[in-house]
Amino acid sequence: MNNYELMVIFTPVLSEEDFKGAQKKYEDFIAENGGSTVHSNPWGLKSLAYPIQKKTTGIYWVLEFTGAAEIIEKLKIQLLRDEQVMRHMVTRLDKYAVEYNHTKRNGGFAVTQKAEA
User: Fold this and answer.
1) 23 lies in a domain?
2) Would you state the pLDDT for residue 51?
3) I need a labelling partner for 113 at 20 to 30 A (CA). Which of 1, 37, 91, 101 fits?
């Protein structure tokens, strides 16, 4: 089982119910194919760096999950078929990225104070 991070930019015209439905659809797809969701993080509506399909904003969603390598191609096909998805990116996480995400989710990092001379 590998660790992956999926970032999706959905079209900004989605309602809140449609956005939650799309999240659930992809989480269920991963679960059906033998994977499991580690963490879901909806970022919400953000400005894009450049227009995509004549839109200047998009609804961002980041999903961290585990699964076999075979699941990625099936997931990419589903994402490309979905008209609500403007862009997507799947990244395989190494052990350091998994540890970093876990620490960030569970209380963050300790702030270090500069020692005064």
Assistant:
1) no
2) 95
3) 101
Q: pLDDT per residue over 34-60, tens digit each?
A: 999 999 999 999 999 999 999 999 999
Count structural domains, the chain.
1
Q: Which domain holds residue 36?
A: 2-13+29-96
| Confidence label for 109 from pLDDT (cuts 50, 70 and 90) | low
Q: What is the pTM of this model?
A: 0.86
Q: Residues near 52 by Cβ (< 8 Å), separated by ≥ 6?
A: 9, 58, 86, 87
Distance CA 46, CA 57 (A): 6
78 within some domain:
yes
Beta strand spans in the chain (E): 2-10, 36-52, 55-67, 85-93
Q: Tell me, what CATH number does 73's domain have?
A: 3.30.70.60
| 71 within 8 A of 33, measured Cβ to Cβ | yes
